[in-house]
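Appendix B, Record 12. Input sequence as logged:
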Amino acid sequence: MSEQSQPNVASIERDEQDEQEGGLVADRLLQLQQLYPEAFREGQLDVDALRLAVGDQAVDKRRERYSFTWAGKRDAILAVPQPTQASLLPVDEQSVNPATTGNYFVEGENLAVLKLLYKAYANRIKLIYIDPPYNTGNDFVYPDNFREPLQQYLRVTGQLDAAGNVTSSELDRNGHKHSTWLSMMYPRLLIARQLLRSDGVIFISIDDTEVANLRLLMDEVFGEENFIASIVWQKKYGPANDAKFISETHDYVVLYAKDLSKWKPTLLDRNEDQLSDYQNPDDDPRGLYRLSDLSVKTAAESSIYPIATPTGKVVYPPASRSWVVSEARYNELLANNRIVFGKTGTGRPMQKKFLTEVKQGITPQTWWDREFAGDNKTARYEIKELMPENIFDNPKPSTLIKRILQLATQSRNNDLILDFFAGSGTTAQAVLELNREDGGNRRFILVQLPEPTGNPAYPNIAEIGKERIRRVIARMEAANAGKLPLDERSQPEDLGFRVFREVASSYKRWQPVSQQDYLSKLTEQSEPLTAGWQMAALLWELALREGYGLAATITALDNDRYRIADPERGQAMIVSLATSGDFTFDPATLVGATLFLCRDSALTDSQIANLKLQAKAAQVRFRTI
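Logged structural output:
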């Protein structure tokens, strides 16, 4: 069905037929859009919206209520509980100091990775920072059916069947751009919220394309009561003269708390200009101070009284103002040498505000200029200094991420930072360098999809991120050469990170079988593991399923038995992958363990019953795999 035959949707763009007819249809649509802009969505005329705009009350008489929805929202919600068919495997040859580090880089699709990390890291993340796709024209590369946004939109709106055939003569393309972006973001943000600590926060970089929808989405996922601020970041210094209308020089960083009542920002250190306001010209023993106006913009009669200067001159507060303190309080301040009348003693009274008595820091603001948080130009220079190949477009400056870290983390609380749209790895660089600057022990988990780059040296973005982190660490180690550790750290500086890669699950995907095939498939379905499963991959999958984090260690015992321990969570389990032999508990290996796993196919019914009894006596959980 052609665009021209659709009764409810029309395109503003001129097609070949329009050009041949002098563009009459397109010109009339443009005129209509000027009169009724509310009837157009993404360049398309919504006839029902036009009917409402001209007062047709018969269009939709359903009861109105406030709601936020989009085509595909139901599928996005259902995507959250769907189990992932993936696991993680360490890649130590690509890591730096993997045995001792608490930093991690996961190469994989972030929705699958978030699900894998959920059990181990729920309520443990202090700060999440993400820089997701801005939805400015390119298709998403995330493999949850968003590679073809329009086709996905038409499917979820019931306009295409499972085979991709058109089911309606009235195709409605309106809204697919925003709908697919929202469907991509929703499940990831929902899981992200569960990972945050109760005092945790999330910062999201975004531009004007989706900032309005992001705010609505975050209000739904986090609750509008947990909105903190929409920070405006100056990403460019000067105007772009080739801009069509107005040159965009800013992006946004949207900030939400998991529970606003449990979060407060860390105050920022005063810079040199701010400190220069505090002086001590009269050598007051209480130290540096600045002068504060003693009047305030209110006309409270009780605080309007005469004040005599040292020369005898009497002054009153300016018109429409009053003194900021009562007369009794003023006399106390005067007696305590906290009132100054200028160099000649005839000026307006000012109050001393001592540096030692004010808040030990500056409350952050919503305007972050390039001097405060860097800009795109400094970000490009920064990554080019590390990687002269200049292989990544539009990175964020590490200064921006450091400001976020300073606001939302403590230097020595082992705070955990998560970035699941890691890009070139700016967050890792910011964490490592800020820890060096303030003696901190923050740790990071980065997740990045191996999105192809077309560059043989770095075939995907994950490779860029890993190499950047390696070079940052190498530079920091070089700076350490020949120096003594003078700072008093709570633990050694962590100059390392461990790489994990997403791999296919070692478990078979459940395939429903018909009744007539049930018996023939019974034996095949009874073995849960895939053909050719690998030992390391299976052990890490078992660890993740049981809520063991990325710091877990795997130690080989005897008789195909392994001990998996998570030092951060203080838990351990024993896994037996033997296909036959002795499955009795070994008290020596069970010390500190709370779970014993065996292969179901290796046990008889009597052995399972016996092991259950032994587990109960040893107060150890027993389960088969």
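The longest helix spans residues 176-195.
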